[in-house]
Amino acid sequence: QAPDSFPPLRHEAAVHVLRGRMKGIQGHCNSCYMDAALFSLFSCTSVLDSMLFKPFPLCDRNVQSILRDEIVNPLRKTGFVRARSVMHLREQLTEKGQCSSFTNAEKDPEEFLNLIMHQILGIEPLLKLQSGGQKEQDCYCYQIFMDKQEDLVVPDVQQLVEHSFLSSDLKLVEIPSCFIIQMPRFGKEYKMFSKIIPSLELDITDLLLDSPRECCVCGDVATLECS
Question: What are the Peptidase C19 ubiquitin carboxyl-terminal hydrolase domain coordinates in residue numbering (predicted)?
Protein backbone atom coordinates (compact mmCIF):
# COMPACT_ATOMS: atom_id res chain seq x y z
CA GLN A 1 0.00 0.00 0.00
CA ALA A 2 1.40 3.34 -1.06
CA PRO A 3 1.91 5.75 1.85
CA ASP A 4 -0.14 8.92 2.04
CA SER A 5 1.22 12.08 0.45
CA PHE A 6 0.87 15.44 2.13
CA PRO A 7 0.70 18.88 0.47
CA PRO A 8 3.11 21.66 1.50
CA LEU A 9 2.18 23.68 4.57
CA ARG A 10 0.65 27.11 4.01
CA HIS A 11 -0.35 30.12 6.09
CA GLU A 12 -1.74 29.32 9.57
CA ALA A 13 -1.17 25.59 9.08
CA ALA A 14 2.54 26.18 8.56
CA VAL A 15 2.79 28.19 11.78
CA HIS A 16 0.79 25.62 13.72
CA VAL A 17 2.76 22.58 12.50
CA LEU A 18 6.29 24.00 12.28
CA ARG A 19 6.59 26.31 15.31
CA GLY A 20 7.86 25.15 18.69
CA ARG A 21 10.32 22.71 20.22
CA MET A 22 11.16 19.43 18.44
CA LYS A 23 10.10 20.87 15.11
CA GLY A 24 11.92 20.93 11.79
CA ILE A 25 14.64 18.47 10.77
CA GLN A 26 16.76 17.04 13.58
CA GLY A 27 20.46 17.73 13.15
CA HIS A 28 23.11 15.07 13.57
CA CYS A 29 26.74 14.65 12.56
CA ASN A 30 27.20 17.83 10.44
CA SER A 31 23.85 17.48 8.65
CA CYS A 32 22.90 21.18 8.95
CA TYR A 33 23.56 22.02 5.29
CA MET A 34 21.28 19.22 4.13
CA ASP A 35 18.61 19.86 6.79
CA ALA A 36 18.34 23.53 5.83
CA ALA A 37 18.23 22.74 2.10
CA LEU A 38 15.54 20.06 2.44
CA PHE A 39 13.41 22.22 4.73
CA SER A 40 13.63 25.17 2.30
CA LEU A 41 12.83 23.07 -0.77
CA PHE A 42 9.86 21.10 0.53
CA SER A 43 8.23 22.32 3.76
CA CYS A 44 6.08 25.11 2.32
CA THR A 45 6.30 24.83 -1.46
CA SER A 46 5.41 22.22 -4.10
CA VAL A 47 7.62 23.66 -6.87
CA LEU A 48 10.01 20.68 -6.68
CA ASP A 49 7.50 17.97 -5.85
CA SER A 50 8.33 16.36 -9.19
CA MET A 51 11.49 15.15 -7.42
CA LEU A 52 9.25 13.06 -5.18
CA PHE A 53 6.91 11.47 -7.71
CA LYS A 54 8.06 11.76 -11.32
CA PRO A 55 9.96 8.77 -12.77
CA PHE A 56 12.82 10.66 -14.44
CA PRO A 57 14.95 8.72 -16.99
CA LEU A 58 17.88 8.28 -14.59
CA CYS A 59 15.80 8.31 -11.43
CA ASP A 60 16.87 6.15 -8.50
CA ARG A 61 13.51 5.09 -7.06
CA ASN A 62 15.01 4.07 -3.69
CA VAL A 63 16.44 7.54 -3.04
CA GLN A 64 13.20 9.08 -4.29
CA SER A 65 11.09 7.01 -1.88
CA ILE A 66 13.36 7.83 1.10
CA LEU A 67 13.13 11.52 0.27
CA ARG A 68 9.34 11.39 -0.08
CA ASP A 69 8.27 8.90 2.60
CA GLU A 70 10.88 9.40 5.35
CA ILE A 71 11.57 13.14 5.07
CA VAL A 72 9.08 15.28 3.14
CA ASN A 73 5.81 13.60 4.18
CA PRO A 74 6.69 13.49 7.92
CA LEU A 75 7.85 17.12 7.75
CA ARG A 76 4.56 18.21 6.20
CA LYS A 77 2.42 15.98 8.41
CA THR A 78 3.95 16.48 11.88
CA GLY A 79 6.56 19.22 11.35
CA PHE A 80 9.37 16.95 12.52
CA VAL A 81 11.91 14.67 10.81
CA ARG A 82 14.24 12.55 12.94
CA ALA A 83 17.96 12.43 12.24
CA ARG A 84 17.82 8.70 11.42
CA SER A 85 15.75 9.43 8.32
CA VAL A 86 18.22 12.01 7.03
CA MET A 87 21.10 9.61 7.76
CA HIS A 88 19.32 6.98 5.67
CA LEU A 89 19.33 9.44 2.77
CA ARG A 90 22.98 10.37 3.43
CA GLU A 91 23.97 6.69 3.34
CA GLN A 92 22.32 6.33 -0.06
CA LEU A 93 24.02 9.49 -1.34
CA THR A 94 27.37 8.12 -0.18
CA GLU A 95 26.72 4.90 -2.05
CA LYS A 96 25.49 6.54 -5.26
CA GLY A 97 27.88 9.48 -5.24
CA GLN A 98 31.04 7.51 -4.57
CA CYS A 99 31.96 9.93 -1.78
CA SER A 100 32.46 8.43 1.66
CA SER A 101 32.09 11.68 3.61
CA PHE A 102 28.40 12.38 3.00
CA THR A 103 27.50 10.61 6.26
CA ASN A 104 29.80 12.55 8.56
CA ALA A 105 31.23 15.73 7.00
CA GLU A 106 29.69 19.11 6.29
CA LYS A 107 29.27 19.75 2.57
CA ASP A 108 28.36 22.70 0.41
CA PRO A 109 24.60 22.67 -0.30
CA GLU A 110 25.36 23.02 -4.01
CA GLU A 111 27.30 19.74 -3.95
CA PHE A 112 24.32 18.01 -2.34
CA LEU A 113 21.83 19.50 -4.83
CA ASN A 114 23.98 18.62 -7.85
CA LEU A 115 24.34 15.04 -6.67
CA ILE A 116 20.69 14.37 -5.86
CA MET A 117 19.18 16.33 -8.76
CA HIS A 118 21.65 15.50 -11.54
CA GLN A 119 23.30 12.15 -10.82
CA ILE A 120 20.57 10.41 -8.82
CA LEU A 121 17.25 11.78 -10.08
CA GLY A 122 18.35 12.99 -13.53
CA ILE A 123 16.57 16.36 -13.42
CA GLU A 124 17.41 18.97 -16.06
CA PRO A 125 19.24 22.09 -14.73
CA LEU A 126 16.84 24.70 -13.31
CA LEU A 127 18.85 27.83 -14.24
CA LYS A 128 20.44 29.17 -17.40
CA LEU A 129 22.91 32.01 -16.76
CA GLN A 130 25.07 34.13 -19.03
CA SER A 131 28.04 36.23 -17.93
CA GLY A 132 29.26 39.14 -20.04
CA GLY A 133 27.99 37.73 -23.32
CA GLN A 134 29.86 34.46 -22.81
CA LYS A 135 28.49 30.94 -23.30
CA GLU A 136 25.41 29.94 -21.31
CA GLN A 137 25.94 28.09 -18.03
CA ASP A 138 23.45 25.54 -16.68
CA CYS A 139 23.11 25.03 -12.93
CA TYR A 140 20.70 23.92 -10.23
CA CYS A 141 21.13 26.78 -7.78
CA TYR A 142 22.77 30.18 -7.53
CA GLN A 143 25.10 31.16 -4.70
CA ILE A 144 25.31 34.86 -3.89
CA PHE A 145 28.85 36.22 -4.15
CA MET A 146 29.52 39.86 -3.41
CA ASP A 147 31.96 42.25 -1.79
CA LYS A 148 31.13 43.91 1.50
CA GLN A 149 28.60 46.70 0.98
CA GLU A 150 28.73 49.34 3.72
CA ASP A 151 25.22 50.58 2.92
CA LEU A 152 23.72 47.08 3.31
CA VAL A 153 23.47 46.43 7.04
CA VAL A 154 20.35 44.26 7.14
CA PRO A 155 19.63 43.54 3.46
CA ASP A 156 16.76 41.65 1.93
CA VAL A 157 17.14 38.86 -0.62
CA GLN A 158 16.10 41.13 -3.51
CA GLN A 159 19.01 43.50 -2.79
CA LEU A 160 21.53 40.68 -2.43
CA VAL A 161 20.54 38.99 -5.69
CA GLU A 162 20.65 42.27 -7.62
CA HIS A 163 24.06 43.26 -6.17
CA SER A 164 25.47 39.79 -6.86
CA PHE A 165 24.24 39.66 -10.46
CA LEU A 166 25.55 43.18 -11.09
CA SER A 167 29.01 42.56 -9.63
CA SER A 168 29.36 39.28 -11.58
CA ASP A 169 27.89 40.74 -14.81
CA LEU A 170 25.30 37.95 -14.89
CA LYS A 171 21.91 37.64 -16.56
CA LEU A 172 19.20 34.99 -16.49
CA VAL A 173 18.79 33.65 -20.03
CA GLU A 174 15.15 32.70 -19.32
CA ILE A 175 12.63 32.83 -16.49
CA PRO A 176 13.47 29.84 -14.27
CA SER A 177 10.80 27.37 -13.19
CA CYS A 178 12.49 27.34 -9.78
CA PHE A 179 15.10 29.81 -8.51
CA ILE A 180 17.12 28.26 -5.66
CA ILE A 181 19.33 30.91 -4.06
CA GLN A 182 22.10 30.22 -1.56
CA MET A 183 22.74 33.09 0.83
CA PRO A 184 26.28 34.42 1.52
CA ARG A 185 28.05 32.04 3.90
CA PHE A 186 31.16 32.54 5.99
CA GLY A 187 32.88 30.74 8.84
CA LYS A 188 32.22 30.96 12.56
CA GLU A 189 34.60 33.90 13.03
CA TYR A 190 33.07 36.29 10.48
CA LYS A 191 29.67 36.78 8.89
CA MET A 192 29.02 39.43 6.27
CA PHE A 193 25.44 39.97 7.52
CA SER A 194 24.05 39.17 10.93
CA LYS A 195 20.54 39.00 9.48
CA ILE A 196 18.95 38.77 6.02
CA ILE A 197 15.29 39.66 5.48
CA PRO A 198 13.45 37.15 3.26
CA SER A 199 11.87 38.76 0.19
CA LEU A 200 8.44 37.14 -0.16
CA GLU A 201 8.47 38.00 -3.86
CA LEU A 202 11.48 38.40 -6.14
CA ASP A 203 11.43 40.83 -9.08
CA ILE A 204 13.78 39.43 -11.75
CA THR A 205 12.82 41.91 -14.49
CA ASP A 206 16.22 43.60 -14.52
CA LEU A 207 18.05 40.27 -14.23
CA LEU A 208 16.66 38.82 -17.47
CA LEU A 209 18.72 38.81 -20.65
CA ASP A 210 17.21 40.82 -23.54
CA SER A 211 14.01 41.45 -21.65
CA PRO A 212 12.12 44.59 -22.79
CA ARG A 213 12.10 47.21 -20.03
CA GLU A 214 10.85 50.74 -19.94
CA CYS A 215 13.11 53.77 -19.93
CA CYS A 216 13.16 55.40 -16.50
CA VAL A 217 13.20 58.87 -18.18
CA CYS A 218 10.62 58.79 -20.98
CA GLY A 219 8.70 55.57 -20.32
CA ASP A 220 9.25 54.12 -23.80
CA VAL A 221 10.95 50.78 -24.39
CA ALA A 222 14.57 51.16 -23.33
CA THR A 223 17.37 50.74 -25.88
CA LEU A 224 20.33 51.14 -23.50
CA GLU A 225 21.01 49.77 -20.04
CA CYS A 226 23.23 51.47 -17.49
CA SER A 227 24.49 49.27 -14.70
Answer: 24-204
Average pLDDT over residues 35-55: 93
For β-strands 127-131 and 137-139, DSSP reports them as: antiparallel
Q: Residue 117: left (phi > 0), alpha (psi -120 to 50), or beta?
A: alpha
User: Is pLDDT of 7 > 60?
Assistant: yes
Instruction: Kindly report, residue by residue over 174-183, the tens digit of the pLDDT.
Output: 999 999 999 9
Alpha helices in the chain (DSSP H): 11-18, 32-42, 50-53, 61-65, 73-78, 83-97, 109-114, 157-167
Three-state SS at 70:
helix
Residue 219 has pLDDT above 70, yes or no: yes
Residue spans per domain, the chain: 11-121, 127-222
Alpha carbons 164 and 182: distance in angstroms, whole number: 11
Rounded distance between C-alpha atoms, residue 169 and residue 95, angstroms:
38
pLDDT at 58: 72
> Around Cβ 20, how many Cβ atoms within 10 Å?
11
Query: What is the CATH number that goes with domain 11-121?
Result: 3.90.70.10
Q: Which of 186, 146, 185, 150 is nearest to 162 (CA)?
A: 146
Residue burial 54-66, b: 16+ Cβ < 10 Å; e: rest: eebeeebeebbeb
